[in-house]
Amino acid sequence: MRTGRPGEALAPLLCPRAIAVIGASSSLDKLGGRALQALVGFGARAVLYPVNPRETQILGLTTYPRVVDIPGPVDRAIITVPAEHVATVLDDCIAKGVRVAQVYSGGFGETGPQGRRLEQALLERARAGGLRIVGPNCLGTYCPESRLTFMPDVPEEPGEVAIISQSGGLSVDLLSQGAAAGLRFRAVVSVGNCIDLDIPDFLDHFREDPKTGLIGIYLESVRDGARFREALAAATASKPVVILKGGRGEQGARTVASHTGALAGHEGVWQAVFRQGGALSVDSAEELLAVLAALPVGPVLGDRREVILVGNGGGATVVASDLCDRLGLRLAPAPAETLGTLRAAGLPPGATLGNPTDVPASILWRSRGRLLAQAIEALTGLPAPAPVVVHLNLTPFRAYPGPETFVEDVVTAALTARRGRAPLLLSLRATPDAHGEALRRRAQRLAQDRGVPVFPSLNLAIVGLAKTMEDAARRRGRRAGAGDSARPAHEGQPVRDGRGAALSQTEGREMLAGWGVHVPRMVLTRSVEDALEAARSMAYPVVLKVQSPQILHKTEAGAVLVGVTGPERLSEGYAQVLANARSAMPQATIDGVVVAEEIRGGAEFIVGLSRDALFGPVLLLGLGGVWVELLRDVVLRVLPVDRDEIRRMLRELKAAPLLAGYRGRPPLDMEALVNLVARVAALGEADAGLRELDLNPVVVGPEGCGAVAVDVRLVRDPAVPVPAAGTHEAWLGRDPRGGTPSC
Fold first, then answer.
1. Same domain, 84 and 150
2. 547 with 658, same domain?
3. What is the pTM of this model?
4. Long-range contacts at 641-644 (CB < 8 A, ≥ 24 apart)
5. pLDDT tens digits for 80-130?
6. Does residue 225 share a domain with residue 121?
7. Domain span including residue 711
């Protein structure tokens, strides 16, 4: 049976007393040989027990045929034997009382159905015996405090960065490149296929670990979406979490399936999960390391998204300025008095003054960095200065005598410039040869000894700073209060198999109206006479729509007619839409023609729901009507959401200016739209049978005029009971009024 919390299993993973290396070898060609050699070479503080039935001694260590033959207690096992032997080895580990086994071996879920069956058998064995598993298909653990490693040439000094990676290869890259950039780690854990201990377990552990300050994750998938969301939100409440998601596109998703045997999931949904959970999402391993390097300056950042750029290289600053625009950063304006100070400092005509300030290498050489320091001091002399990114291309320095001393003088001048509370970030570029690398490392050591983060490019420094500002703003928002929560968070409903069946327009309208969503009046008619009577009851103009469960895209089929202004046009149009529908899809079942009041004016939005296999109900909100597929201006959130979150979704849209009134148009009724979306979200959580919902368009009138869901497409599983009428009031909490149009 399973015993203990995940944190209790991770203690022996990171700080073991004794490790059995099962499959150990004297050959470095073997995975077990490399694993043991790395631990011995790094001076592991745990007792090491090689296990190999064909050896008696490896690397001077007594070797045992089986784990159960080891005389002393063992709390951690490293398993490197072929996949078909892992189950037998696990039985021995359970008999020995091992608490956690890290299975390096591949050949499991990543290989297909047979591999997944092997994984399931391992998991059942481990659960029955109280053993926790990391992996399989992973590479190891690096923890300098315990002198644990899976690779040579790693830093001995510990730091505050914890890395969790579902890729062994990326674990190597993140550790080696991060160490070269000056990062120091609490731990780097390769977690592989995560059949037992999963990403949320490691998040919980590092959240509670007082020696961990920052968490970085390379993620392909998780087993339990709700558990991941819970762990992520808890972790980001106290520590920054940076995530690189693999398998974003179609090809990447296929690669994930062959890499960890898991589904990659929908990219937009994952990004919504990260955003709602407070994590920072990045696009590359280099960005992941850059953000981790920049995050320590977060606590001293102000609330303005501004930056100051100073260095040598005009072209680099032009490119960086473009990147600032894309990331929503502004180059802090330099007041006239600041420009005067820069001129008075003696910066010659070759220097570009202001922000950015470009100081050529020749000027740096003549002043030995003094003018660079004066430029920094002038630009940060305001009461609340923006952060400074100093970028130095060291290659031109090699043209001058004594480049090593030159580099030291310039970097020291930049680091010691008086800049008030403005944080400093340093970008260092150099020719990728031995001399250039030596210059870069010399400058990097000077900066890092003073606690200044260093980046290999100006663009990475800016990405790191922008993400750090994003994290700082999020933390300020959390401290300001929990927001306008409409109700307590709901755990969601289980996902059922089956695609479900589409409801008719009238059925969908009736269901939505029961949840307080305003929809047009409509009547299903089966004759022209019925249609004329329906139109008289609601007044012209009206809309005609053929109702058929098979014809989902009615506009393309010519089965919709808008702007019907009188009886004569209605009679003609009735016959026309029926003929078009029968021509477009002769086999379709036609229930009749819906006559609906026409909603005019306002702007068109789309509101939708879908059900994700990992995370449950997902809300979509965006610019609607004919622009949906063309512009794709939509945002996603995983439910639950409150009204404040819905307002944030609206502000993220490119079409957001429409709500405030654009080019002389009146402001739209944003609160009516927010209330409509809140009702749709409540329906999505309460109705476990709902599969898909598209409200397109939702017409939003001027302020005070409401929002109306004009067209409805709703698919649900008929085997799941519909929530009882009236239950939505309990879900929506306060403000039970609908956004009923009054204009």
1. yes
2. no
3. 0.90
4. 641/276, 641/678, 641/681, 642/483, 642/484, 642/485, 642/486, 642/487, 642/678, 643/484, 643/486, 643/674, 643/675, 643/678, 644/483, 644/484, 644/485
5. 999 999 999 999 999 999 999 999 999 999 999 999 999 999 999 999 999
6. yes
7. 603-732
